[in-house]
């Protein structure tokens, strides 16, 4: 009999999860107007243009096919199961993706690693030829890092403040989700924004990310005309004016332009610009599992985001242990415990930790 | 609030005005009758003014005895004529000229009147504010309504990020709200002009149409756009494209949207699909199959069949693809018009064509 690979094992566990916990999987609103897409374990096949008429049908599909990743469209369509140009776009939720990849944390560069497709050898630097088997094809992977996820959370909190204080959305209209791996997704479902076109969505992205911001329009001195004695906005001024006023220390100003630029950098929320502007985006279906971590893309109450910890609150496999052989792994945390680093070790780990390493393709199950 | 007779004549795009015309019982065949001669005449005049002056006149203040009914009824007739001629340039020109007239009138109105006009035509969430020394704005409006038209404007002051916003409300001054309304009216008129017509027009009107077509033809050549030159002139690429192009050659990473901008630009200035695929596959390790698929898609040879234009400058800025503007950049909104302007400049300053380079 063929030996069970990491993938087979993870698929089996995902299957069990969906069997026992299917009620936890929440379908999106307007289910029959959404397109669904799924990545299957088998050779990374992508199924797209799927439609479900009921929650039960969606649940049945997840249990039967056990996809490695599940996505749905932020858009609403007349016919979600047709080809792109025949779908009949009816509108789209407003979507934000905050991904640690877009945030310059000090450890940002340290998380990349490359796995040789042939011998699974792991390399921390990008090479053209595998030192172990001379293979030439690699998969680029990323470690999931607590510090980067904290940074992403901070950006998400900043974003939510823009959305509530400036743009006037209510907490009920805002859904926050852990992406399942390296960031957070923010969905806004509201009739008022459904028909915004791409240019309008771009303006919203520019707003939260401070792109094209000219402090002079918020009452700050104009560095070009050098009128420097102008009073600055009050700290409690609405919008960007107040944000910048709170950030800069007027008495210590040496260079208005530089200090204001720095203030914008500190106050802005770093979001993925492409995702928000895309009117046909597929995004991970909240409450499903992430194939690269085995974590749940958990829904988070907006008011409780600050205390959310993905390493305890997004775990799907909380019970049991599994013995695996680890090729190589950085340090990582699950729950309260820190594991690793490991190199060529066979070890029994709590299931969630073992699944994370299997999903990352750096370990194999030991039968 | 119902608009007055003079307001209806000023703002014939409103629902009140449409109802007023309907109640008059205007029949298209009456247009040949003597009573309606003035209406038809004014309709023709509106169009002529649009073509020649770029603005439709309003003589409300200066001319005594102005017939409001003629003003009001001539508007839908002018729309009818312009739609019949069905020329894209002409539709835009007419919509713009009516919008220009309306903008001049709106800025003179009281705040309440602006709100009345809005209530009467578009359902925007706008409220009047009291102006004080510390509060210079006349209105606040829901940011979604603001974004419906502000994105059409070039100036930085219109960017949402440069506005005072609180709880979803953008603060605007009266002339700014007037400008936003004007833009909405322009779109509204343009949409009406796009409607297909099935009416058979009376001969008096078709004679007028022939006259207008003639004026349009005489003027048309003046408005003709610059054409893309038949050879590719690399020296005329805008800074953003130059940088992307160099990055490609130097095998530096280019984001997905960067590749889209570069590909759509190069296809639009005339580099052919095969050459482009070769450029990508030789300069990078892209697979030929996937590259072909994407390039052909952008060229409109696959999928929807739409040939894509490069993204506007604004979009390039959002995605961090604008390396900074030069003098020409300040006058355009998209890399293609930049290219056309630069080509013109190169051709007038260097008639020998020293920098022209054929891409083959």
Give me some keywords for this one.
heterodimer; A: 367 residues; alpha+beta; four-stranded antiparallel β-sheet; globular; B: mainly alpha; 4% strand
Structure report:
With 367 residues, chain A is of the alpha+beta class. Chain A contains 9 helices and 18 strands. In chain A, helix 1 (6-21) packs antiparallel against helix 2 (55-65). Chain A is globular and about 75 Å long. The model of chain A has no long low-confidence stretch (mean pLDDT 91). With 360 residues, chain B is mainly α. Chain B has helices at 5-10, 15-24, 37-53, 68-85, 88-106, 111-121, 143-150, 174-194, 203-223, 239-249, 256-268, 273-283, 288-298, 313-318, 335-349; strands at residues 126-128, 139-142, 165-166, 169-172. Chain B has a 4-stranded antiparallel beta sheet with strand order 1-2-4-3. In chain B, strand 3 and strand 4 form a beta hairpin. The longest helix of chain B has 21 residues, at 174-194. The model of chain B is unreliable at 352-360 (pLDDT under 50). Chains A and B meet through helix 4, helix 5 and helix 7 of A and helix 7, strand 3 and helix 14 of B.
Give the end-to-end Cα distance of chain B, rounded to a whole number of Å. 66 Å
What is the radius of gyration of chain A computed over CA atoms, rounded to a whole number of angstroms?
Answer: 23 Å
Question: What gross morphology of chain A would you assign?
Answer: globular
Question: What is the CA-atom radius of gyration of chain B, in angstroms?
Answer: 25 Å
Low-confidence stretches of chain A: none
Backbone structural class of chain B = mainly alpha
The number of strands of chain B is 4
Largest sheet of chain A: 4 strands, antiparallel
Percentage of residues in DSSP E strands of chain A? 15-25%
Helix content of chain A: 25-40%
Using the alpha-carbon principal axes, give the shape of chain B.
globular
Strand content of chain B: under 5%
Average per-residue pLDDT of chain A, rounded, comes to 91
Q: What is the subunit arrangement here?
A: heterodimer
Q: Which two chains share the most extensive interface?
A: A-B, 34 and 30 residues
Strand order of the largest sheet of chain B: 1-2-4-3
Order of helices and strands of chain A: HEEHEEEEEEEHEEHHHHEEHEEEEHE
Distance between the termini of chain A: 13 Å
pLDDT < 50 stretches of chain B: 352-360
